[in-house]
Write a structure and sequence with these properties.
Maf protein; 208 residues; alpha+beta; eight-stranded mixed beta sheet; 32% helix
C-alpha cells in the first residue's frame, strides 16, 4: 500500500502553515502530530540537527507502524546559530531559557548578550534539517541555511520564534518583515522542504 498522507512532527501552528504552503503541490494530505492523533514523548538527545530530526521522525513512524498507518513522517530540527556566541543557541534553540519561555524574552536576552557588538560580528544563520521516515523503513535528510545578522530590536509581524531579530542585509529587512511567500522562498525551512520535495518525488514510485 502506498502512503497517502504526510504527518509532520510538530505542534507549531506557524510551522504547519509554512509547511502546507510549500508542500501543497505534492497532492498529499498534510497533518500535524495532533491532527493525526499521535501522542508520543520524544527525547531529543542528539548532538546535531540531523540526529534530532531523525529521532523525531523515527519515533513517530514506529508509533504509526503499530497502528498500521501508511504515512510518510517528516520532522524538522531547526535553530539559530550566532557566531559571536559560539553558535548558541544552536540545537537548543527551542529550549533556550526553557521551553515555556516566550520568544520575546529569548530575543531580548540574545540582543542584550550582543550589546556593544558591531554589525560585522553579529553574523548568524538559521539552520533547518528535514528528516523523512517512509513506511518501508527508508530514511532521508535534507539541510539548508540562510545567512544574516542579529538586529538590535524586534521587528516585523509575519514571522515567529527568532524571526523578529534576524536581519537580512541583502533585503534590508528582518525575517519577520518578509511577505510569507517571499519568506518561504528564501528561508532555511523553505529551502530544506523544497529539497525534501525532490526526494519525495524521486522516491514516489519505489517507496511511497
Amino acid at each position: 500500500m502506498k502512503a497517502d498522507k504526510i504527518i509532520f512532527a510538530t505542534g507549531n501552528a506557524g510551522k504547519m502553515k509554512e509547511i502546507r504552503m510549500i508542500m501543497a503541490d505534492l497532492g498529499l494530505e498534510i497533518l500535524s502530530m495532533k491532527e493525526a492523533g499521535v501522542d508520543v514523548d520524544i527525547v531529543e538527545n542528539g548532538k546535531t540537527f540531523e540526529e534530532n530530526a531523525m529521532i523525531k521522525a523515527s519515533a513517530i513512524a514506529q508509533e504509526l507502524k503499530k497502528d498500521g498507518v501508511q504515512a510518510i513522517v517528516l520532522a524538522d530540527d531547526s535553530g539559530l546559530e550566532i557566531d559571536y556566541l559560539n553558535k548558541e543557541p544552536g540545537i537548543y534553540s527551542a529550549r533556550y531559557m526553557g521551553e515555556d519561555t516566550s520568544y520575546t524574552i529569548k530575543n531580548t536576552n540574545l540582543i542584550q548578550r550582543l550589546d556593544g557588538v558591531p554589525d560585522e560580528k553579529r553574523t548568524a544563520r538559521f539552520v533547518c534539517v528535514i528528516a523523512a521516515a517512509f513506511p518501508n523503513g527508508s530514511k532521508f535528510t535534507t539541510r539548508a541555511t540562510i545567512e544574516g545578522r542579529i538586529g538590535y530590536e524586534e521587528r516585523g509581524e509575519n514571522g515567529f520564534g527568532y524571526d523578529p531579530i534576524f536581519y537580512l542585509p541583502e533585503y534590508g529587512m528582518y525575517s519577520a518583515e518578509l511577505a510569507p511567500e517571499e519568506k518561504n522562498r528564501i528561508s532555511h525551512r523553505g529551502k530544506a522542504l523544497e529539497e525534501m520535495k525532490k526526494v519525495l518525488k524521486q522516491a514516489a514510485e519505489e517507496i511511497l
